[in-house]
Design goal:
The chain has 313 residues and is mostly helical. It has helices spanning 3-13, 18-41, 46-57, 60-68, 77-108, 113-145, 170-188, 215-236, 241-263, 270-275, 287-312.
């Protein structure tokens, strides 16, 4: 075996995990030797036979990927169309909503139309990049955690089973994780990246700064647990009574404190509304507060009822 083969084998092994290298090297060298011997026995020059065999094996990195079972793509065909659909939904729903709300707040705050356009376009691009990045990362991680050996033939036996009532869809899970991640990021940045600024140029948060003493970190922790719950739920594959019960607890852990804070005038920052020229924050009993409480309760109640309904099926 010549230096050419040694170089080829070394190029393959550099991408192979240490624990697999000895076995793969022995298998690869034996395969190369057998092919060269067969060509030489057929009357081909040994040097030329070696070159032909190594050329036929192809790119060492691709061969290494096939040996180690690593995908040679970021997102494969099994997940690509779910990835594409979810990404499109997030981009055409989340980004426009954020842009419209941000533009309205800035215009009401007295900024010029040109300033609003410039800032909102930058925010939209930044948000879109984050959505694409995090969605792609989550799908890529799932692609690698569920990697299967390549299959060369397809048969009817490989058709997946019909989805059962209460089953958890991958696209729903990823959508929930992405949205929860964006909400956590929004809460975390509420005091330092607010579009509303004071006369001194300091950002003014929509939420009362006193909430950072306990409640905002509390909500961030609850939302983080919900991300873990979404992943566990997907791994289980369908709604069960225990999962529905945990879902009830998580919804209660978020909705009850949120309603309490709204009902006791502890959640909104008066300075935010004063800076915009809107007076003080909406009080308990106002249409805004009542509607917000109703939406929180309705969303939590529907999520809980839907989970138990699917578990019962």
């Amino acid at each position: 075996m010549s230096e050419l083969t040694d170089r080829y084998v070394a190029a393959v092994l550099r991408s192979i995990p240490d624990q697999q290298r000895v076995d793969i090297e022995a298998e690869l060298r034996a395969s190369i030797d057998d092919e060269i011997d067969a060509r030489a026995a057929a009357g081909e020059d040994a040097g030329r036979a070696e070159e032909e065999v190594l050329t036929t094996l192809g790119d060492p990195d691709r061969l290494a990927a096939s040996y180690s079972g690593r995908p040679g793509h970021l997102i494969g065909p099994d997940l690509f169309f779910d990835y594409k659909r979810l990404l499109l939904v997030l981009l055409v729903s989340v980004v426009p909503i954020v842009v419209v709300v941000l533009a309205a707040v800035r215009l009401l705050g007295g900024e010029t139309f040109g300033e609003v356009i410039f800032d909102t376009v930058g925010t939209a691009l930044t948000l879109a990049v984050h959505i694409v990045f995090w969605t792609t990362l989550i799908f890529a991680l799932i692609e690698r955690s569920n990697q299967k050996p390549p299959e060369t033939e397809w048969s009817l036996a490989k058709l997946p089973a019909l989805p059962t009532p209460g089953s958890i869809k991958l696209s729903d899970t990823i959508a929930s994780v992405v949205v929860l991640t964006l909400v956590i990021a929004g809460l975390s940045l509420t005091g330092s990246a607010s579009p509303v600024t004071s006369a001194a140029g300091a950002p003014v948060s929509l939420f009362d700064p006193d909430l950072w003493s306990f409640w905002l970190p509390y909500f961030i922790v609850v939302l983080s647990i919900e991300i873990i719950f979404e992943i566990v739920k997907y791994r289980v594959g369908r709604w069960t009574w225990p999962l529905a019960s945990v879902n009830l607890a998580l919804n209660s852990a978020f909705a009850i404190p949120a309603v309490y804070l709204l009902a006791t005038d502890q959640i909104l920052n008066d300075e935010f509304f004063e800076t915009l020229g809107w007076g003080t924050a909406p009080d308990v009993g106002s249409t805004t507060i009542n509607l917000t409480i109703a939406i929180i309760v309705a969303i939590a109640a529907w999520d809980v009822i839907d989970a138990f309904r699917k578990a019962r099926r």
